Amino acid sequence: MYTEIYLRLEPLGLELVAAAARAAGHTVRILDLQVFSHTDYFRTLDEWQPDVVAFGVNYLANIPEVIDLARATRQRVPEALFVVGGHSASFTADEILAHAAGDIDCVVRGEGEAIFPRVIAAAGDRAALATLPGVVTPHGRGPAPETLSDLDALAPARDLLAKRRKYFIGVLDPAASIEFSRGCPWDCSFCSAWTFYGRTHRQRDPGAIGAELQRIAEPGVFIVDDVAFIHEEHGYAIGREIERRGIRKKYYLETRGDVLLRNRDVFRYWRRLGLEYMFLGVEAIDEAGLRAHRKRVKLSTNFDALELARSLGVTVAINIIADPDWDEDRFRVIREWALGIPEIVNISVNTPYPGTQTFAEQGHLLSTRDYRLFDIQHAVMPTRLPLDRFYAELVRTQQVLNTKHLGLGALKDTAVLAAGLLARGQTNFVRMLWRFNGVFNPRRQLADHARPVRYAMRLPVPAAQPESPQNLYVLRPRERRDLAVNADR
Ligand code: B12
Ligand code: SF4
Description:
By secondary structure, the protein is of the alpha/beta class. It has two domains: 140 residues, 3-Layer(aba) Sandwich (Rossmann fold), CATH 3.40.50.2300; 309 residues, tm_1862 like domain (pyruvate-formate lyase- activating enzyme), CATH 3.80.30. Strands 8-11-12-13-14-15 form a six-stranded parallel beta sheet. The mean pLDDT is 91. The structure holds cobalamin (B12) and iron/sulfur cluster. Iron/sulfur cluster (SF4) binds next to helix 9. Cobalamin (B12) binds next to helix 1, helix 2, strand 2, strand 3 and helix 5.
């Protein structure tokens, strides 16, 4: 739902995996199903008859669609090896294979760059597949996935994406994406970014980043790091490369309140370099909520960070997690608070995703096992309010907040900008201004729960003890620098 309105971004992980396959000598095409239709996909299969078909499944909600496509693919190109990889697939490999009943040949867990060419090489020998690190097949699995040794060895195959003008975030239209670092050293209970990367945080080489940025044609750049500029010296080093190369772009990044406060000067520096948008994961406006999410940050720190962000002159968006336990009163408090501050406030619904500690500990309480509802806009845990009233409150709150920024009043401020984008043929931002009511609708959200469920999610077995992170990791943790993440509780 979110990507129907506010943003659509290039599939960076898939581009890296494609670059690895190309470097190994294969002919590769990418079809982004955010932009192309299933009809386009089937036409490509029929015309091209690929030897390998690989899907990136970062999002849990896409699992049923990919299983259905695997089935249809098997009928059209029966000999092709069908591979699935990506963030969500890494946490659900066994159940994906079980649902697909032989139509998916393997799931690749973890980072795909090094292993994908080896998977292709093993296409002719499916028994050999089951011996590769991180690879899970219906007939057996290889050892644990390996951590990539060099994050700069490959550049994403951006040239393989047709229709690059479709990628945007708000007024950064069009926008490319780039990675400065990978992983996150914190361990929030609702998040799987840290469990995927074994709680490691690795930085790319500033020179390689500068060279990559110089090759990007788009004027907008979305920095995909989970937490930008954890180490300020890295932010400065990249900035110096940008200055040295005379690169002028507009940037969007996401970070934490405590990192912003601690490294305020580097963010100020980046404002001069073109930082336009900043997203802060505030998550809760009470101490109890922050503790429940294990954010390891004080409420006052987050509020100080908001003050600071305002003073930088960037557009700030924040996220608040709505708990299924919220009643009308709680939604009202959030609405009033959000209307009183200038920032863009986004509300998401607390959703236990496989790979998170919340899922391991509370997953057995889920009220639905329909993957498609796991998009943080649906309630998948029992709600205190009857579901229809929960959605009515949620959408009303989102509507109020949407109108604050995209209503007619706000539109006056963006009219010149919108006209400029239209003049350049960029329509993504302008279309977004009218889309909200068509997409966010309590009746639609409620009706989504009534759809027949053909693939039911596997639930965790309730454990007597709190789940150990060791059981959740995809990549194994390594020695890491002390980032003092536990200091501000
Ligand atoms: C950038 C980003 C986005 C971008 C989307 C970018 C895109 N088009 O893919 C935007 C902002 C649009 C976005 C939106 C959302 N996101 Co998001 N997003 C991320 C983020 C921060 C980084 C992803 C990224 O690009 N990483 C860099 C690349 C290089 O890594 P990668 O994609 O993981 O790819 C590597 C491996 O996964 C693997 N791989 C990937 N594909 C393939 C394919 C094959 C064949 C193989 C072999 C390997 C492989 O190899 C790659 C290279 O190592 C992740 C957090 C994270 N750290 O992963 C969250 C994350 C993936 N998002 C998340 C969520 C919840 C959402 C939203 C639902 C939020 C919302 N507000 O509605 C939406 C849903 C969007 C949708 N399409 O449905 C969750 C995932 C939840 C889940 N399990 O389903 C994550 C993990 C964040 C979190 N903290 O929990 N997101
Ligand atoms: S700081 Fe952000 S990316 Fe890191 S664990 Fe918490 S929510 Fe996930």
